[in-house]
Structure of Fibronectin type III domain protein:
Amino acid sequence: MLRGLLRRDRLSGQVAVGAVGLLLVAALVYGVGRAGATYRVSDVGAWLGATAKGLVVHANGLAGRIDGKAALPAARGHAITVVQDGRTVLLVDETTGVVSRVDPSQLKVEQGRDLGAAGIQVVIGGGRAYTVDAVHGTVQRIDPVTLAASGPVTNLTPPLGRAGVDATGRLWVPVPQSGHLVPFTDGKPGTPVTAGRPGGGLGLTIAAGTPVAVDSENATATIVRPEGPRTIKLPSAVRAAGAGGVRLPATAESLTVPLLAARGELTLLDTGTGTVASVGLAVPRHRLGEPQVLGPRVYIPDESAGALLVYDYAARHAEKPIPVSGRSGPLEVFVKDGMLWANDPDGSTAVSLDQDGSIKHISKYDDKVAGGARKPLPAPGGGGGNGDPRPGDRPVRPLRPGDPPSAPRAVDPQGDAGTITVTFQSSDFGRVRPDGYVLRGPAGGPVPGASPAQVPQGGDYRFTVGGLQCGRPYSFQITVRYTDPRTHRQRNGASARFTSGACKEPAAPQNVQADPGNGTVAVAFDPGADAAAVTGYVLTDDAGTPFPGVKPLGTNAAHRFQVTGLSCSRDYTFRVAAKYTSGGRSAQALSETSATARPCTAPGQVTGFRATGVNHGASLSWNPAPGYDVGYRITANGATYTTTGTSYSLTGLTNDRQYDVTIVALNGAGEATPAHATADLAVAPHARTYNGHNNEYTSTILHTGPSTGDPRAGTFPKNFTGPVTVLCQASGTSVTDDNDPNLKSSVWDKIDYNGVKWVSDLYVNTPGSNAGQFSSTLWSCS
């Protein structure tokens, strides 16, 4: 674990606690004039860690300055995680496993508690707080003020995923082994929601207060709403991200959730509409953090460069990176109250941005604030000092006499005609003089064809590499070689890394973005560098073969292809090639990155769903669901049916019962939230009135059931032709009329005649009476 690492998951207030130990966190406030002094920090702000100084500071995002700070002298240099929700602010010392609470009004830390286990998450939101033990699979509610346990322990199947709290204060805990999200309300578990395949990875983000689970191995996202889950299919790049899955934020204040795969494939899921867009970003092979969305931009932490990579997905182009620390190291990046924050927890700087992308640089060690020192704050190593001498970087000290040489300086690569020539300046050194310099590949191996093999100290500081391809970048490093004065052995020292093209010819297009339509995909891109020589652009598949049926674009056309006639049942992967002429021959520069899209969007929920009971069945109807190539899955009585129409007839049901019927709209891009209806097959509302007949010679005996063997229940008098309410019909014993042997029937009528009774259908003038058949106007009794 990097020393001083500070992570944050806002809104859900989720943290991960590392090692377990005991730490009595002594909190003191620098510069407080009297005991019990009350302070007010800005509402539009955030608490940030400054672990090298043993501080947490509160920053005003609009003003770009610090307006409060509290000290943790015993935790200086520890890994501290800040968790905040409203006025509740918790600090977790990951080095010791102790949780403490910040009192913002007093600018002091209090209520320390040892969590007592490794891998604990502390989750707060909606005035509630929980501990989630991912390793042992336990969940427990705690008091957010005293931090004491306030509910029973619930055991789930470990390991658990990162938990979060939705807009209603309900906790959601991913259980990857079962593929479920388990909700907790006031500390009590509810009915699990299926969100992925059992045994796979299951990530969770809270988007605009709604849980969204991502099953990377199955490439699906499940949006959990009160009316039911909605499943969205994601591009294949999500599945290709591997066992670790895609990177996604713990929370997103907007409806858009960004998902970042290992090679820079960015997927943007609109949880409101279900639309999925894919972007193949040209990102360096750096250590990248979880992407964040604010306004129309996606911000990706580049921890190798200490900067934010920026992509404007509305304008479909990349923007200039935003420096934060300017050096390699952890970055904490999150969105809170409509502002994005990027903090260097080990240094003095932070950055805040608003919805329009306006930047405020923040100096965290400013002393002239509430809780600030009356004298300079002590430096991490002790003694006086005013913090880092340069904003955005660590203090720089000169080389000591025994130090090895620094990395080579002023590296300047130039590419032309398939050859890269790189010039540089000597390393800085003290007593240990460089022996020379070698050119290596990004993995550290020698570069074939590099000339010379080694540049001696004091020589011509220049390397040349030929035989390279145009239109693609090459990464190298120049490493200083020196002799260790203690062992007298030659060693490899520090390296200066660089990336360059091999030609001044056009570079490949970048940032390919694919947006789905109705059987169509729109593919946009940014031209590469040195695009003046480009003669046109060609859309290709992932292998670089021109996509059939799509015409090339001229240089003056909008950088956007429209692909039609595609199937919603599959993904399509696109690249873009820039065409140009090199040495009199046709050439092309193919985009390194690709974008994958399915040419449709998951349909919306069915509306107007009605289930009308009919005899032994139900007649279903609904309005067409919005979407392309939409089908429907119907579930009733334990069976499943499919159709593409807007009506369906269920058969084989039992009368005098109610059936719950569910319908889901679906297509190749996913499934909508289910709609529900109830089919009532009660027979009483469908009773009909008919007159008696065939009673001319004698009275007709009524029974308590559809059999002559059932007890008698009265009679129709002789010559009875009055009205009778027939509730339904059923099969019973066969009856032959005593006076007319041609009248035979095994159909019996359930009637309402001075109470509910049964009579042979021969003696009620129903449509099928004389024929001995059931009448279509009447329902069966069972």
